[in-house]
Amino acid sequence: MSDLRPNVVLRSLMKHVGMSAEDLAEAANSATEKRFGERGNLTGRHVRRWLSGQTNQPQLPHLVGLMDTFGVEGTDLGFTLSTKRSREVAQYRPASTLLVENTTAAEEDHVLRRHFMLAGAGQLLSIAFAPLPASGRIGASDVERIRQSIGRLHTVDDLYGGDQLADVAEQFVGQIEDAMGRCLYGPRVEQALYQVIGELHASAGWFSFDAGDQVRAGRNFDSALRASLLAADRMLQARVWAYMSRQSWELGRATETVTIARAALDITRNARDHRLSALLHGRLALGYSAAGQGTQCGTALARAETALDRIGDDPAAAWLAFVGPGEVMGAAAMAHMGLGQADRAAHQEEQGMQLLDPRFRRNRFAKAVHLSECYLAADRPEEAITMAGEALDLYPTVNCPRWATHLNGFRDDLARRDLPGAEAFVERYDLVTADV
Questions:
Q1: Residues 343, 378 contacting (CB under 8 angstroms)
Q2: Residue 293 resides in a domain
Q3: Is 433 a member of any domain?
Q4: Residue 52 maps to a domain
Q5: CA 33 centroid distance within chain
Q6: N or C: which end of the chain has fewer CB within 10 A?
């Protein structure tokens, strides 16, 4: 028994989407039925044996069911697969599925619950938000369920990208505000309600930004800041400023990028999450690089790495979960690209991809696109085309218009060059994107 190796990757995936062993067994059985036409026979006991390491070689249908449930490759589930099983599972591409929450008619008499359907990137997702009272009193437990629902949005974003999620977040804000008009609640719950409204607006702003709608993003960021003031929540305010700083850099406003990131650092100086510190110092580095200030950029990146080293084992907030070694290396890569140091940027983005948690498929797509740009700028066209091909593999299952636009720009750049493999990539790009 001492040789058992618990499956920490699978446990992390389950924790990320809030699934128990029984939940996963049910979801995987449903996914198996959709894939093979026959429902799976998994139970919670099977899952617990996988988690403990007692079983490290799932049957092929079970493995494919898990792939489809989480939307990841079989090799990214934490099992030690035999060569034969690895070859078998390599024949299957993960489908994009998400656990759907159901509500009975009796429940609908007492609560308001809405399912949002998202169509795009070859999948149909259903997101069910926490029930809100139709009348009576809103309590702290209601607010906590709302927070859990917000976490589901970021789970979808991590896997598939945020396109269309702004609609969902904004509509949920409307539901909460309607409930506040119908129901009673005390001062503490009121403050907490403004917090979750601010969190939803912040998320909607980020999703809009990622979809390329900067006007809508700005509108949501303004609403989130107003809610953060009503909730007296400095961490929420800093979160919004972190988003706004990234947007300012994207829009070419170097000085504003630095000013906003500094404000966020100042307001949370004595009570800051280390992940937030790493993120904000990374934002500073982007601003400094855009302004051509290499020394200040290097200092900011060093501070981001120091903050990263201080991150403990405490679970991260859903919106901050992506901040890790892969994210910090990615920020360094973008900063050095801004300074015209393409070779160094490529090396750092290579490291960033290696360090990225497999849960963050949307970020993997973004990194693959950016690394392609780094390689091309560093006069390494063969590696650039290969990496762009990896991004194209992810394209059908990721909704990320901002980085999809970058990939389209890479395609157009190649089309103008006489490079080995360029024509083949352009043809494949046109074929793949035409089907999405």
A1: yes
A2: no
A3: yes
A4: yes
A5: 28
A6: N
Q: How confident is the model at residue 130 (pLDDT cuts 50, 70, 90)?
A: low
CATH code of the domain covering residue 19: 1.10.260.40
Tokens of residue 367, six digits: 């990194």
Which bin fits 326, alpha (ψ -120 to 50), beta or left (φ > 0)?
Answer: alpha
For helices 234-250 and 187-210, angle between their N-to-C axes, nearest 10 degrees: 10
Cα–Cα distance for residue pair 377/391, rounded to 1 Å: 17
The whole-model pTM stands at 0.72
What CA–CA distance (Å, rounded) separates 331 from 184? 45
Q: Which of 38, 65, 89 is the last residue of a domain?
A: 89
Residue pair 419/379 in contact (Cβ under 8 Å)? The answer is no
Give the dihedral of Cα atoms 335, 336, 339, 344; nearest 10 deg: 180
> Across residues 191-202, what is the average pLDDT?
95
Residue 142 pLDDT: 85
pLDDT by residue (tens digit) across 317-335?
888 889 999 999 999 999 9
SS in 3 state form for the chain? CCCCCCCHHHHHHHHHHCCCHHHHHHHHHHHHHHHHCCCCCCCHHHHHHHHHCCCCCCCHHHHHHHHHHHCCCHHHCCCCCCHHHHHHHCCCCCCCCCCCCCCCHHHHCCEECCEEEEEECCEEEEEECCCEECCCECCHHHHHHHHHHHHHHHHHHHHHCCCCHHHHHHHHHHHHHHHHHHCECCHHHHHHHHHHHHHHHHHHHHHHHHCCCHHHHHHHHHHHHHHHHHCCCHHHHHHHHHHHHHHHHHCCCHHHHHHHHHHHHHHCCCCCCHHHHHHHHHHHHHHHHHCCCHHHHHHHHHHHHHHHHCCCCCCCCHHHCCCCHHHHHHHHHHHHHHCCCHHHHHHHHHHHHHHCCCCCHHHHHHHHHHHHHHHHHCCCHHHHHHHHHHHHHHHHHCCCHHHHHHHHHHHHHHHCCCCCCHHHHHHHHHHHHHCC
Residue 27 lies in a domain: yes
Q: Nearest to residue 128, comparing CAs of 143, 106, 149? A: 149
Predicted local confidence at residue 95, as pLDDT: 59
The number of folded domains in the chain is 2
Angle at 372 between CA 77 and CA 375, to 5 degrees: 125
Residue pointed to by tokens 């607006």? 201
